[in-house]
Write a structure and sequence with these properties.
This protein is α/β, with parallel strands linked by helices. It is 35% helix and 22% strand. The chain contains 18 helices and 23 strands. A nine-stranded mixed sheet has the order 13-12-14-15-23-22-21-18-19, sandwiched between helices. Strands 5-2-6-1-7-10-11 form a seven-stranded parallel sheet, with helices on both faces. A hairpin with a 7-residue loop joins strand 22 and strand 23. Helix 5 packs across helix 6. The termini are far apart. The structure holds glutamine (GLN).
């Protein structure tokens, strides 16, 4: 293969939510499984500089990379599929594009010229696309364009794709993802919306090379030929994407449709052999053949929108498969839990996870759930806010500090067991000002964490402002809380546990869910699921 990086663009048509992220990740997996280096980038056409300031109801979970970027949840899929970390460069929003163009304008870098969408915004988009290729680390860069073709806000991105396609020729290809709706009255898949969507792309000057068509039913050869003829693509470049039982099935479906082969040929890369998907398929086999089901409660305040906890749900899928069980998540709204109803509501759960979050809503319900788990020896796993709640619960009910709280929820508490660090106190901007990204953590020997990780030093990703207040450290330790993980540089408490009488009780200040992948299920999730299985 030539030394040039090859660029693959994935656009979407007809409707949103067709799964561009999963198609991109699946193609990337197939290329990786053929021995190529590949990364995936998401371009988001909204004005927020990053999704960090967005409420999870808007776009689901905010995913965090090692280098501390707050990104779209699709980056989570990229990492889970590829088992390769992403970075700030893998997610770019319109807000960020404009921010850097405006910063350059203020510095006088445009030398008196009028700054315009074309060429300045489109040039900045092109630079961001090529940035990943320029690192020299990747043979393929797949760029997923957020939104749907025809949206006003995604126009500059489509224009950037048109220009790159013109400039790069053979090194660049465009995949368009569309929907073939099924009309049950006539029993037909309809191609017109796809034809219109491709026409729209053509109006913008972009001829897609490959069409991936989402459909509820198989696409027969007549339909493939019809789409090919009306959309100027090869018949074998009309790819069927049937609804799958799990997202992890999609790379295999795409392999059967030869999406990788078609794309490689379009890019002038010779194709030999087949993708090596042995480990992937072993995982799928385990996923589809569990020996039992184990029910775990996920206590959070955004449970109506499951995308809010995407990485946690996926980490449970990975951890379940490796344990040969199916983890059934029971999503429980923390606002509905009280000390009075907690026993009844959580009855029968084999494990309880208290989710991350911000703000006061539902906090007391989370604390009730933790008290119940602690007192009844139910495996408990608290993540970020979940860990902070475990600290508050312990302070209130074991140390007897009745008004103990996090300063985030009650600024006037006389026992701020969770508090802001001095350095955080004067921050007024919301965007990008939390403790973000990977930090090292040193584990104490002879603790559950040490046993589970099997290492003395680990690295995990953070996204929070508040911390365990070390003024209370001695009191907690004396009362039996085990501090098993500490940030070696700042002395911050990162992991808390209970004594060995409890089968599994762990709160972590970081987000282990971001690092769980198909190939490397996260050890804490694996151990927690194991504890839930053992909880008779
Ligand atoms: N709200 C808490 C903090 O800012 C926890 C954040 C989280 O759970 N991600 O520290």
């Amino acid at each position: 293969m030539s030394s040039n990086t090859k660029y693959i663009f994935v656009t979407g048509g007809v409707t949103s939510s067709l799964g561009k992220g999963i198609i991109s990740a699946s193609l990337a997996k197939l290329l990786q499984a053929r021995g190529y280096t590949v990364t995936i980038q998401k371009l988001d056409p909204y004005i927020n500089v990053d999704p960090g300031t967005l409420n999870p109801y808007e776009h689901g979970e905010c995913y965090v990379t090692d280098d501390g970027a707050e990104t779209d949840l699709d980056l989570g899929h990229y990492e889970r599929f590829l088992n390769v970390p992403t970075s700030q460069a893998n997610n770019v929003t319109t807000g960020r594009i404009y921010q850097s163009v405006i910063e350059k304008e203020r510095k006088g870098e445009f030398l008196g010229k009028t700054v315009q969408v074309i060429p300045h915004i489109t040039d900045e988009i092109k630079n961001r696309i090529k940035l990943l290729g320029k690192t020299g680390q990747y043979q393929f860069v797949i760029t997923e364009i957020g939104g749907t073709v025809g949206d006003i806000e995604s126009l500059p991105y489509i224009e950037a794709v048109r220009q790159l396609k013109w400039e790069m020729g053979n090194d660049c290809t465009v995949i368009h993802l569309t929907l073939l709706p099924y009309l049950s009255t006539s029993g037909e898949l309809k191609t017109k919306p796809t034809q219109h969507s491709v026409k729209l792309l053509l109006e913008y000057g972009v001829q897609p090379d490959v069409l991936v068509c989402r459909a509820e039913h198989a696409i027969n050869n007549d339909i493939r030929r019809k789409i090919a003829l009306f959309c100027n693509v090869d018949v074998n470049a009309v790819i069927e994407a049937l609804d799958a039982s799990t997202i992890y099935e999609v790379p295999v479906l795409m392999e059967e449709e030869e999406l990788d082969v078609v794309v490689l040929k379009k890019l002038g890369v010779s194709v030999d052999g087949a993708p090596q998907l042995k480990t992937w398929k072993e995982f799928l086999y385990k996923l589809h053949n569990p020996t039992q089901e184990v029910e775990i409660g996920l206590i959070g305040k955004y449970v109506e929108l499951k995308d809010s906890y995407k990485s946690i749900a996926e980490a449970f899928i990975h951890a379940g498969a490796i344990n040969n069980v199916k983890v059934k998540l029971n999503w429980i709204h923390s606002e509905s839990l009280t000390d009075e109803n907690v026993k009844e509501t959580l009855k029968g759960l084999k494990g309880i996870l208290v989710a991350p979050g911000f703000g006061n809503r539902g906090i007391e319900g989370k604390i009730s759930a933790i008290k119940y788990a602690r007192e009844n020896n139910i495996p408990f796993f608290g993540i970020c806010l979940g860990m902070q709640c475990a600290v508050i619960e312990f302070a209130r009910n074991v140390l007897g500090l009745k008004d103990a709280h996090s300063r985030e929820m009650n600024p006037a508490t006389s026992n701020p067991v969770i508090d802001l660090l001095e350095a955080q106190k004067n921050i007024s901007h919301m965007g990008g000002t939390m403790r973000l990204g990977a930090y090292p953590c040193r584990l104490e020997e002879n603790t559950l964490a040490y046993k589970v990780y099997g290492a003395k030093e680990i690295s995990e990703r953070h996204r929070h402002r508040y911390e365990f207040n070390n003024e209370y450290l001695t009191k907690f330790k004396e009362a039996g809380m085990i501090i098993s993980g500490i940030n070696p540089n700042a002395g911050l408490v990162e992991i808390v546990e209970l004594n060995s009488k409890h089968p599994f009780f762990m709160g972590v200040q970081f987000h282990p869910e971001y690092k769980s992948t198909v190939e490397k299920p996260h050890p804490l999730f694996v151990a927690f699921v194991k504890a839930a299985i053992d909880n008779k």
